[in-house]
């Protein structure tokens, strides 16, 4: 009877321990019940998954789930009207936990609407994020003293930047061999002589450009390469400054003398490519991404010719090709209604960890890539993994350079990089409503007036009229808001 009694007591203790402490009752099931699901929204890209796989079934997402301990639901936005879908998700009451927001204006709208959460309380526990993000970049996501996103720095200093693409073989033939090879910015008067020689000797359009009032390189030579810049101890709007009139006077001279394409006000990208490939134009403003297909087509028809970038013009205000993009590549935001803010930040910190980042970006060493003399070399198997772009929330200069080289763009981008020395100061500011709300109207105003000034359709005597229109469209108020931020926040 004593044995039976103790057996009963032991059984009761075992069952009660299982009931109260859960140590004997399917621990895997209990762990699964506690597992957090994070929903991550990312932009669309043209890359496709392997057969039988999708955004929620592949080696990368399985790896991230294993390393993070979270269940992940990846949502790829549609190519058309993506932010309408995001707005619907935010309004549904069941928002995602992380949004890769590549549109600065959308970020500004969400900030004003109060639909995204500040992240300051989580940052002390995010060492990888703090290491990745430069101090000055945080200002672009700071609003009323709080940080509202993880700002991912620009992975390319050349984003949105064009260069001067020219028939180098013609320049050498015309006696400008030094200029064809020079790495130093070329004086404006030398550019004028080059264009004149091309017109007189080659009988083609010396210089063509798309429909724009701010012509890359030449604008930089007059110090107006970006809309906003610091002048003295304050921010100014470049296009209403006296140097803007100097720029317009020079470009009007090129236009009147037939050195600038008479069709430039209506030119599209296709027109420029056609003129260069057909040999009807000698020089053009071309982005590095467009240079590759243009050069390939050109070489098919002109195997003995040579197209290439040359140094930009140097003028009375200096030189430079502006980086028209923000210092940010993207912002990673957490909706205010997310129930997993802390976990979302933990996951983003994990994504910036070097081993995680390398796996997502390059794959498995020996299978997808190898390192030779410290440089990553992609293997053929990597081509089956291009869909990894959907998981690259964080990017670096190294990875971007590898992808450029892999796709053949690097030889062109490398020629532009040294001249990207103008940066938009407003890119370091948060999306101020006074600035964002008027930006489209101001851009249209500049394009309209500057094209008319360059062609002579409107006399430069009307420049003050343009300035008045700029004020009427909110330009001065935008400038006041930027200067307030610059003095009270940025300079601190």
Chart the SSEs and their pairings.
Elements: H1 2-21, H2 27-34, E1 37-42, H3 59-68, E2 71-76, H4 82-91, E3 98-101, H5 104-113, H6 127-132, E4 142-143, E5 146-147, E6 150-153, E7 162-167, H7 168-173, H8 177-181, E8 186-187, H9 188-202, E9 205-208, H10 218-221, E10 228-231, E11 234-237, H11 242-256, H12 269-277, E12 281-287, H13 288-301, E13 307-310, E14 313-314, E15 328-333, H14 341-351, H15 354-362, E16 369-372, E17 375-378, H16 397-407, H17 410-416, H18 433-436, H19 439-455, H20 463-472, H21 475-490
Parallel strand pairs: 1-2, 1-3, 8-14, 9-12
Antiparallel strand pairs: 3-15, 4-5, 6-15, 7-12, 7-13, 10-11, 16-17
Helix pairs in contact: 11-19, 12-13, 13-17, 19-20
Count of helical stretches: 21
**Could you tell me the strand content as a percent range?**
5-15%
Secondary-structure content class: alpha/beta
In whole angstroms, how far apart are the ends?
82 Å
- Within CATH, the superfamily of the largest domain carries the name Periplasmic binding protein-like II
Find the CATH topology of the largest domain. D-Maltodextrin-Binding Protein, domain 2
Strand order of the largest sheet: 2-1-3-15-6
Oligomer: single chain
Mean pLDDT: 90
Strand count: 17
Shape: globular
Using only CA atoms, what is the Rg? 28 Å
Tally of domains: 2
The amount of helix comes to: 40-55%
CATH architecture group name of the largest domain: 3-Layer(aba) Sandwich
Largest sheet: 5 strands, mixed
Unreliable stretches, pLDDT < 50, 5 or more residues? 4-32
For the record, the CATH class of the largest domain is Alpha Beta
